[in-house]
Amino acid sequence: TDSRPKVVDTEVVVIGAGQAGLSTAHHLARRGLTPGTGLVVLDGSPAPGGAWQHRWSTLTYGQVHGIHALPGMRLTDADPERPSSAVLGEYFAAYERRYDLRVRRPVRVHRVLDDQEGRLLVETDHGRWRARALVNATGTWESPFWPNVPGRTAFLGRQLHTADYRGPQEMRDARVVVVGGGTSAVQHLLEIAPLARSTTWVTRRPPVFRTTDFDPDEGRRAVALVDRRVRAGLPPRSVVSVTGLPMNDAVRRGRQDGTLDRHPMFDRITPWGVAWQDGRTVRADVVLWATGFRPAVRHLAPLGLREPGGGISMDGTRAVRDPRVHLVGYGPSASTIGANRAGRAAAREIDALLAGELPPSE
Ligand code: FAD
């Protein structure tokens, strides 16, 4: 006999209850799917808030930039001094209540399979669901990227990734090397430098500080580039990382006092620090990798969505290799505004799919 939990049938499963998952669930519910029965939202995190709940508490709401509200409910009067994890956690919780989205958590999806009878089978640590369509909205937080640098395993100090960072306190009196050219690296450096014995900033490419306001055309071009990549089946690049580093007073001070003096990427890690080919070395107690994230899509592997180029080929939010599968918050929609729009588009297409209309052919 089959000792596995019985399979619960539903119309649509949404995996992930961050901005992307909630936005899509909202639009699906508006189109008539009933949360809890016809629409099942599964989230592996313990509380509402998507990845925000896991981010370090010194990342205040005032520091995160350009967060777009979830569809239908504004986030008003939030205190910019409070941690973004708290502000967005409360906001997402209120949103889920208001629209009665019935998110099941913590439920971790291990894998999604084709049941060979036209349905998708979603296997989790808390049961199995069988659905006619799937929305994957698992973000990137759970897939931190660690570059492969020679000597990494020989380092005697501590190595951590932005995903493990809990704040500057744990860096007190340490010699810290921060790797990465994005906003997270800059924020880490600015708050670690006053407490640490020393900080060293290392990036592959020279960082670009944005001295003018963010140019929406530039943003659109960045999204279009990522869109072309995923249509071609290549791994997406981050759309939020191409906007340049925002300039503010703290950054200006950091550039003046040397905290934001950047060194080119080192060539190897030694047991005691990092080393460049020209013989230069920097001793370190901690290497903090602020080197970004990749889409958290391993559980989709059994569906065979990947192209030889390494990415999942997409047409809008729809996976080209399986039109029942939509990826929201992936590639060009991996920003809060992109996730909102993609959620609406995915809901519209899934509605058509459930009504028996075939997706437009390529
Ligand atoms: P997430 O918020 O990551 O939600 C995904 C959810 O899926 C999580 O709850 C996770 O637990 C769950 N999940 C993952 N895998 C599984 C699984 N196998 N089974 C079940 N559940 C699973 N964007 C902006 O627009 N403005 C900003 O200011 C901004 N600041 C940022 C700052 C930092 C430090 C970082 C890292 C990113 C920032 N971003 C910002 C990007 C922003 O986080 C994303 O655009 C957006 O919030 C991601 O939403 P999401 O719903 O796709 O993913």
Task: Provide a descriptive summary of the structure in words.
This is NAD(P)/FAD-dependent oxidoreductase. Keywords: Oxidoreductase. By secondary structure, the chain is α/β, with parallel strands linked by helices. The protein is built from 6 helices and 20 strands. Helix 1 packs parallel to helix 6 (336-354). The protein binds flavin-adenine dinucleotide. Residues 15-21, 42-45, 50-51, 55, 64-67, 108-109, 137-139, 141-142, 184, 240, 296, 299, 329, 334-336, 339 line the site of flavin-adenine dinucleotide.
Could you give a quick summary of the protein structure above?
The chain has 362 residues and is an alpha/beta fold.
Helix content: 10-25%
Bound molecules: flavin-adenine dinucleotide
Q: What percent of residues are in strands? A: 15-25%
What is the structural class? alpha/beta
Low-confidence stretches: none
Q: Give me the Rg, rounded.
A: 22 Å
Largest beta-sheet characterization: 6 strands, mixed
Order of helices and strands: EEHEHEEEEEEHEEHEHEEEEEEEEH
Q: Quick check: average pLDDT?
A: 93
- The number of E-state strands comes to 20
State the shape.
globular
- In spatial order, strands of the major sheet run 3-2-7-20-19-18
- DSSP summary: helix tally: 6
In whole angstroms, the N-to-C terminal distance is: 43 Å
